[in-house]
Amino acid sequence: MMNKSCTTIACLWLTSFFILSVAIPMRPQLTPDFYSTTCPDLWNIVRNEVLNAMKDEIRIAASLLRLHFHDCFVNGCDGSILLDGDEDSEKFATPNLNSARGFEVIDKIKNSVERSCSGVVSCADILAIAARDSVLLSGGPFWYVNQGRRDGLVSNKTLANLAIPSPFDTLDTIISKFDNVGLNLKDLVTLSGAHTIGRARCTFFSNRLFNFSGTEEPDSTLETEMLIELQNLCPQNEDGNTTTVLDSNSDDLFDNHYFNNLQYGKGLLSSDQILFSSDDDETTSTTKNLVQYYSHNQRIFFMEFAYAMAKMGNINPLVGFEGEIRKDCRVVNSQ
Ligand code: HEM
Ligand SMILES: *[C@@H]1O[C@H](CO)[C@@H](O)[C@H](O)[C@H]1NC(C)=O
Ligand SMILES: *[C@@H]1O[C@H](CO)[C@@H](O)[C@H](O)[C@H]1NC(C)=O
Ligand SMILES: *[C@@H]1O[C@H](CO)[C@@H](O)[C@H](O)[C@H]1NC(C)=O
C-alpha cells in the first residue's frame, strides 16, 4: 500500500521536498535565547556595564542608542560602525564624525563579556543589547533583543553618508532612507521618539536660528522663547560644538515628552519639527496624528517603540557562517 502510494506524483514531491529541506537548510534566524547555553550571563554583564557607564555620565545611554541606529542603517546591524580605520571608515562619515560616541563603553562591555565567555558573542549583538538597556535604564520600555548577529568585515563611509538621515533632509528624503532599510513612516515617527534623551550640537540646528533657508529670518516654526535661548547658546561665529538637550524639560528621562514639545514648536532639529508641520498633505497628517497620539499615551508609545527597535535590530543581519565574531570590536580578526 505505502509503496504503491509512493509512486504517485504527490509522494515524489514530498520526498524531494524532504531532501531539499535537508540540503538547503533554512537561513538561520536571530533569537533572544541564542547565547543561553554559550554565554548565559550575557544579559547581566551588559546591563551592569551600561549602568556603570551611566553613573559616570547619564548621556552615554543616548549615545549608545544612537550608535546602534547608525550601525543598523549601514549594511545592517553588523557592528561595522565600531571598526576603527582610515578616513574611509564609517566613523569619518558626516553623521558620525565628532558626533558618534560610546565606543569606549562598548570596548569595556566586550572585555567583560570575553572574560566570561570568550570568542562567542558578536560586537553587533553587544551593541543591540546595550541600546536596549540604555532605553530601559533611562526609564523606557523593555524588549527581548534578538541575537545571533555576526560582525561585518567592511566599514563603508560612502554608504554611511548616503544611508543615515541628516537633520537637513526633507521629510521625503528621510522617509526614503527609512524605506531603504525596510522601515515605514510609522517606524520613523516612533523611532524619532529616541530624541527623548541625549544632546545635539549647534552645528546640527544653527541653520534655523538666524538666516533660515536664505530668508534672513529664523525658522518660523521654532517657538520664540526657545529660539532666543538657542540664539544665545549658538552665536553665529562660533564653532558649532556647543551641545544642548534634544528634549527640553525632560532631558535624560526616556518618556513621551518629546512628542509634547513638537506640538509647541519645541523640536530641536528640523527633522524633529517637520513631524508636526503645518503642511496639509497625507504624509503630514499621518505624522501629526502619531505625534499627538504618542503625546497623550506613553504606554502605547513605549509598546510601539519596543516593537520598532526590535524591527530596526533585525535589519539585514549577518548570520550562520557569514562575517565573524570579532575579538576586538575595533578591528577585524584577520588584522
Ligand atoms: C529620523 C531621522 C534622524 C535624524 C535626522 C537624526 C539626527 C540626529 C542628530 C543630528 C543628532 C545630534 C548629533 C550631534 O549633535 O552630534 C542626533 C542625536 C541623537 N539621535 Fe538621532 N536622528 C534621527 C533618528 C534617530 C533614531 C531612529 C534614533 C534611535 C532609535 C536616534 C537616536 C538619537 C539619540 C539617542 C541622540 C542623542 C545622542 C547623544 O546624546 O550622544 N535618532 N540625531
Ligand atoms: C560602499 O557603498 C557604496 C554605496 O552603496 C557602494 O557603491 C560601494 O561599492 C561600497 N563599498 C564597499 C567596499 O563595499
Ligand atoms: C542669508 O542666506 C542667503 C543664502 O544662503 C545669503 O545669500 C545671505 O547673504 C544671507 N544673509 C545674511 C545676512 O547672512
Ligand atoms: C569641534 O570639535 C572637534 C574636536 O572635538 C574639532 O575637530 C572641530 O574642528 C570642532 N568644530 C566643528 C565645527 O566641528
TrEMBL record:
This is Peroxidase. Ca(2+) 1 binds at residues 71, 74, 76, 78, 80, 90. One of its GO terms (cellular component) is extracellular region. Heme b binds at residue 195. The record marks 66 as: Transition state stabilizer. It is an enzyme of class 1 (oxidoreductase). It comes from Cicer arietinum (Chickpea). Removal of H(2)O(2), oxidation of toxic reductants, biosynthesis and degradation of lignin, suberization, auxin catabolism, response to environmental stresses such as wounding, pathogen attack and oxidative stress. These functions might be dependent on each isozyme/isoform in each plant tissue. Substrate binds at residue 165. Belongs to the peroxidase family. Classical plant (class III) peroxidase subfamily. Belongs to the peroxidase family. Ascorbate peroxidase subfamily. Binds 2 calcium ions per subunit.
